[in-house]
From TrEMBL:
GO terms classed as biological process: DNA repair; DNA-templated DNA replication
Sequence positions that bind ATP: G55, P56, A57, G58, V59, G60, K61, T62
HAMAP family assigned: RfcS
Lineage of source species: Archaea, Methanobacteriati, Methanobacteriota, Stenosarchaea group, Halobacteria
GO cellular component: DNA replication factor C complex
Protein name (database record): Replication factor C small subunit
SUPFAM superfamilies: P-loop containing nucleoside triphosphate hydrolases, post-AAA+ oligomerization domain-like
Length: 327
């Protein structure tokens, strides 16, 4: 079980659980065993290179960076670890000023300091070029850890200077294990179908699972499937499947009615419905031809919605396309 957050003076029951149960050491990190093992070996050999962490949200990138600092510096880690969020400070000035000032400042007792640049794929190309030069200039006394969702947005000269770690979405077992641990620590009863719903709604994102658990725990004494789906505005997988099957069977009116229920009654956004459709295509037991056709329509609707098209219109067009193909 993870330790409570260091600022433990918040009133009981009002702490943010994603911070309260944020892993403090490598031993507390769930679901990234291979990556943790490689990072441990760097620290044990005292041979830490620049690192690039790539992967979706809530899978342990920031946690792994702070765990490295704690392992190297112990109680002094805050003074030797600079965390910057590139999405807030995207220009070249942050690279030239804050990073250089930290890298130049004097320190004792350690061979190098660590600079953690979160959401580095938000940096402009000019800022990344400046960062590359800074990494070269201060390589003797500074190690950089860059975190991003998409490594393809990081320029090649930076990638070639880093050991790249690709974090995958967390497995269902890892999320279920931490949810059980937190529920036990908080004395919350979670039913098996509630646990399954939390894992499904999380989609590999541990932060989302913990936030959903905390929110669902405020609705009653027991966290069950109904509470989770209500709190997270997530559709039951069977509701999504019912809508798709109706469309594939040529019953557009029934499929459209189910879509309207999801948008109006459940409160789902069009993008969330697209995400659930994409995650569930291969769980619907469709024949391969229907699954491939559905994937093609999902991709087209997702692109149009991302470009600003009306969500409901695009989803209805998706269902209509599936229904027409049966006629």
């Amino acid at each position: 079980m993870s330790e409570a957050a260091e600022s433990g003076d918040a009133p009981a029951g009002r702490e943010i659980w994603i911070e309260k149960y944020r892993p403090q050491t490598f031993d507390d990190v769930y679901g990234q065993d291979d990556i943790v093992e490689r990072l441990r070996s760097y620290i044990e050999r005292d041979d830490l290179p620049h690192l690039l962490f790539a992967g979706p949200a809530g899978v342990g990138k920031t946690t792994s960076a702070t765990a490295i600092a704690r392992a190297i510096y112990g109680d002094d880690w805050r003074g030797n670890f600079l965390e910057l969020n590139a999405s807030d400070e995207r220009g070249i000035d942050v690279v030239r000023d804050r990073i250089k000032n930290f890298a130049r400042s004097s320190f004792g007792g350690h061979d190098y300091r660590v600079i953690f640049l979160d959401e580095a794929d938000s940096l402009t190309n000019d800022a990344q070029s400046a960062l590359r030069r800074t990494m070269e200039q201060f390589s003797d006394n500074t190690r950089f850890i860059l975190s991003c969702n998409y490594s393809s947005k990081i320029i090649d000269p930076i990638q070639s200077r880093c050991a790249v770690f690709r974090f995958s979405p967390l497995g269902d077992d890892a999320i279920a294990e931490q949810v059980r641990d937190i529920a036990a620590a908080e004395d919350i009863e979670v039913t098996e179908d509630g646990l399954d719903a939390l894992v499904y709604a999380a989609g590999g994102d541990m932060r989302r699972a913990i936030n959903s658990l905390q929110a669902a725990a405020t609705t009653g004494e027991v966290v069950d499937e109904e509470a989770v789906y209500m709190i997270t505005s997530t559709a039951r997988p069977e509701d999504i499947e019912e809508m798709v099957r109706a469309a594939i069977d040529g019953e557009f009116t029934a499929a459209r009615k189910q879509l309207e229920t999801l948008i109006v009654d459940t409160g789902m956004a069009g993008g969330d419905i697209i995400d659930q459709l994409h995650r569930s295509v291969w769980e619907f037991d469709l024949d391969e031809r229907d699954a491939v056709r559905l994937m093609e329509r999902i991709g087209e609707a997702d692109y149009r919605i991302s470009e600003g098209a009306n969500e409901q219109v695009q989803l209805e067009a998706l269902l209509a396309s599936l229904a027409l193909s049966q006629n």
